[in-house]
Design brief:
The protein has 111 residues and is α+β, with helices and mostly antiparallel strands. 23% of the residues lie in helices and 53% in strands. It has helices at residues 2-18, 103-110; strands at residues 24-37, 40-51, 57-59, 62-68, 71-78, 82-84, 88-99.
């Protein structure tokens, strides 16, 4: 009897873990070019992440990719701790640098 209960509990636990999905970007609320210096563009983005899981997700850092027309511009990292509450949306501020662009590209494409 104990082995049946243990099997049932472990099956429930494995099923609940498999159901966890990655948070998604619900909206890009704003993006601002902070500075352009020697081909390095400093950006600040305000985004809203949506956590559709039944559990709260928290972490010490957040890794992300910055794309423009399906091309990866730069990987970035938010070093601030965050908490995405269960079944809710959470605003976050991401700071990042993009390398290898001249100011003419930025003026024509991003601003």
């Amino acid at each position: 009897m104990r082995s049946i209960i243990a099997l049932l509990l472990s099956t429930l636990m494995l099923n609940s873990c498999a159901a966890i999905t990655a948070p998604t970007i619900k909206s890009l609320d704003s993006i601002r070019v902070v500075s352009v210096d020697n081909g390095i563009v400093s950006l600040k983005a305000h985004i809203t992440l949506e956590n559709t899981n039944r559990i709260t997700i928290s972490g010490k850092e957040l890794n992300f990719g910055l794309f423009y027309e399906r091309s990866l511009l730069r990987n970035g990292k938010c070093d601030e701790a965050f908490e995405l509450k269960a079944k809710s949306s959470t605003p976050l501020v991401l700071d990042g640098n993009v390398l290898g662009f001249n100011s003419r590209f930025i003026a024509n494409e991003l601003v």
